[in-house]
Amino acid sequence: MKKTFTILLILICFNSFGVKKNKLAYKPILNTNIDQSFPNAAAILVTSFKIGLEEFDYGNKTLKSTWYEYLRGISRHRCKFSITIDENNTLDIRAVDIQWWYSSNSRWEDSSEGLFSKKEEKIRASFAESLRLTNSNADITSQNQSWFFKDLGVNTLFFESATDLAGDRWFEHYLKDQEVKWDLTFLDIEKNNKPDYKYKEKFIYTTQHSLLNLARSKFQIVKYTNSDANVLTKKGNKKELKGYCRALEYNDGMFYVVTTDRLEEKLPSKEQKDDSKTQSKSVLEVAGKLKQLKELLDMGAITESEFKAEKDRLLNN
Q1: Domain of 104?
Q2: What's phi and psi for 147, nearest 5 deg?
Q3: Largest CA distance in the chain
Q4: Fewest CB within 10 angstroms: 2, 59, 123, 181, which?
Q5: 183 within 8 A of 240, measured Cβ to Cβ
Q6: Residue 8 located in a structural domain
Q7: Which residue spans within the chain are E strands per DSSP?
């Protein structure tokens, strides 16, 4: 019995102190793609690290997080995560913009150490391993994709730098006819002058720039509905919009999204009343600009050829 106890004690000591556990080493993720890895990476940032997204460039396959705070010993530090996929479909995670909290001056200072310390290496190695495991789970990946591509915060980041063609492709591939549930600010409800729907409800979504506190791109969501649910809703209240995303247009810094209660419902045509207002406004704007051009010509500020060229451009548009 004593001999058995001694052997067990030796084994416990050996396992506890004699053998070092294998440290998790960072390795880039091979053979991946943006539609799989970016939704999963974003979900890990939001759920595990409790931070958000700051930049998203779909064309260049780059994703960047907001600040993540952590401790190096007793010192407060923070960094952002930069996630990129290269031409060989290799995903790399880097800790960038590393700073430390300078308590004497109560402010963040750029770190004077190298790009990575052991702490950052450990964090990104853990991040990469979580992402690798998530990529291998088809069900979780599908859930994260459904959230990522329909999230208005993600869409704001994408549309800020996207070309018109990229925006059209994004909408057709990820948003069109998709069921959505968005928490939005209720703007107003009005009667619809078309027979298909009783009401036209208006909502808005706006995000703030993380550093400058400036409003980023806005989404105005119009929902055509026959439901009386929001007739008595107060303006400015937060409401959940549930429906199907049917159309998206961009005009003067605003994204206009059209939704309906059910997918099989007919998408309403543009209202004739609104079209006539737009047409009248356009005619008046052109007339006013032509008048200004004539005044500039009479003053000698522009030449006859410049006047004619600008006049032709206005009339053709």
Answers
A1: 28-144
A2: -70, -50
A3: 114
A4: 2
A5: yes
A6: no
A7: 53-57, 62-65, 68-72, 75-85, 91-102, 107-110, 179-191, 199-208, 215-225, 238-251, 254-260
The total of structural domains in the chain comes to 3
Shared domain check, 264 and 157: yes
SS3 260: strand
Query: CB of 118 within 8 A of CB of 15?
Result: no
In this prediction, residue 136 has a pLDDT band, given cuts at 50, 70 and 90, of very high
Does residue 176 register a pLDDT over 70? Answer: yes
C-alpha span between 301 and 183 (Å, rounded): 52
What pLDDT does residue 20 have? 45
Based on C-alpha coordinates, what's the Rg of the chain? 28
With H, G, I as helix, E, B as strand and everything else as coil, classify residue 148.
Answer: helix
- Separation between Cα atoms, residue 36 and residue 311, nearest integer Å: 51
Query: pTM (2 decimals)?
Result: 0.72
Q: How confident is the model at residue 216 (pLDDT cuts 50, 70, 90)?
A: low
**Contact between 132 and 49 (Cβ < 8 Å):** no
What is the residue type of 305?
S
